[in-house]
Design brief:
This protein is α/β, with parallel strands linked by helices and 353 residues long. 37% of the residues lie in helices and 16% in strands. It contains 15 helices and ten strands. It is globular.
Length: 353
């Protein structure tokens, strides 16, 4: 499961290295499995920070991220730093994640009003009865990919045929490759370091295209990264909220989504320094060069902005693409039961192109 822990304000996060991101991928494999268990067990009293305030006062909103502060959250920190949330009348508290908190559970039980995760996770959780809905796209495609040495490149996922891959067991994309695309490969469990990759030029492993390639290059390797997203399997990374909160406070959801998209566009196309300064306040160990690398990767892979040739845009969700994703998840046996697009997402808060 994508788990997170709330860090105390202004304190640095844990020591930063590539292994943290590999652990994040490994933990993602468990992301939905226990959400319903926690939800049905009523893990903690449901609380809501939104309260009646004096005219003109900012409304408190809590937003749960999926990991420790990093450039992959930069749009939210940019919106906070540059006052985009405040301009919408919101006082947004960004709750940093980590390996000991559950994003969807946190939102489902009301410990945060909104959160972020992989779109697949929301679809699977809804199929299991968790009352959540996507309200906008954080990224048009997930940043997970395959790290390879340039001497033995990958041009497509089909090039993994017959190779040995280190990846998070149980990941949906692995089932898509095996059951839908028919690609056969040897799978070994993901571990939290780059040692095996660095010692074997034919080795390939799961990564975040915004992260591990930087560290491999820092160690002197000539590497590339292939995005897992393809025409067959292309999940969004999404902003989501509880269905009860959406029903009670649609205006607040709309304001949050609008300001967040503004923040992301400004962070990636303008000067990211304000957002990076807030990130560095909690993650003082993040090298500036890494942050710039991650931002460049998000732009190069069009993760947030999407591909204009496909009609994509920052924040956009489409019913057609979500239906395709639901059909694929059902085909490979991930969903407990069929779900409708209207059950997993609302398009009411997505700005028109």
């Amino acid at each position: 499961m994508n788990t997170n822990r709330h860090e105390s304000g202004g304190q640095a996060g844990p020591p930063f290295h590539a292994a943290a991101f590999l652990f994040r991928i490994h933990w993602c494999s468990f992301v939905v499995g226990s959400v319903l268990v926690f939800f049905l067990a009523g893990c903690g009293k449901k609380t809501e920070s939104v309260v009646a305030t004096a005219p003109g006062a900012l409304v408190k909103i809590r937003f749960q991220t999926d990991w420790f502060p990093q450039p992959e959250h930069g749009g939210y920190y940019q919106a906070l730093a540059k006052g985009y949330y405040a301009a919408e009348g919101l006082d947004v508290e960004i709750l940093p994640g980590g390996p000991n908190a559950q994003v969807m559970t946190t939102v489902a039980v009301g410990r945060a009003e909104l959160g972020m995760t992989n779109g697949d996770d929301v679809i699977v959780a809804v199929a299991r009865g968790v009352p959540l809905k996507m309200v906008g796209a954080e990224m048009q495609r997930d940043p997970q990919g395959i790290l390879f040495h340039s001497e033995h490149p990958l041009q497509s996922l089909q090039d993994l045929e017959g190779r040995t891959l280190m990846a998070g067991a149980g990941s949906t994309w692995l089932q898509v490759m095996q059951k839908k695309l028919g690609v056969k490969f040897n799978l070994i469990p993901l571990v939290g370091d780059l040692a095996r990759f660095m010692n074997n030029k034919e080795f390939v492993q799961q990564c975040f295209v915004t992260n591990e390639p930087y560290f491999a290059k820092q160690r002197g390797a000539d590497v590339g990264a292939l995005l897992i997203a393809s025409d067959t399997y292309e999940p969004y990374r999404v902003m989501f909220a509880g269905t009860d909160f959406i029903a009670k406070h649609p205006d607040l959801v709309g304001k949050f989504v609008r300001a967040s998209i503004h923040g992301w566009t400004d962070y990636l196309k303008g000067d990211p320094a304000p957002g990076n300064a807030l990130i560095a306040r909690q993650r003082g160990d993040l090298p500036r060069e890494f942050m710039l690398y991650s931002i460049k990767a998000m732009n190069d892979f069009k993760l947030v902005s999407g591909d204009p040739a496909k009609g994509e845009a920052a924040g956009q969700l489409t019913a057609a693409r979500l239906q395709k994703q639901i059909n694929l998840l059902q085909e490979v046996g991930v969903l407990d039961k069929p779900v409708a697009v209207s059950e997993v997402a609302t398009f009411d808060f997505i700005p028109k192109p």
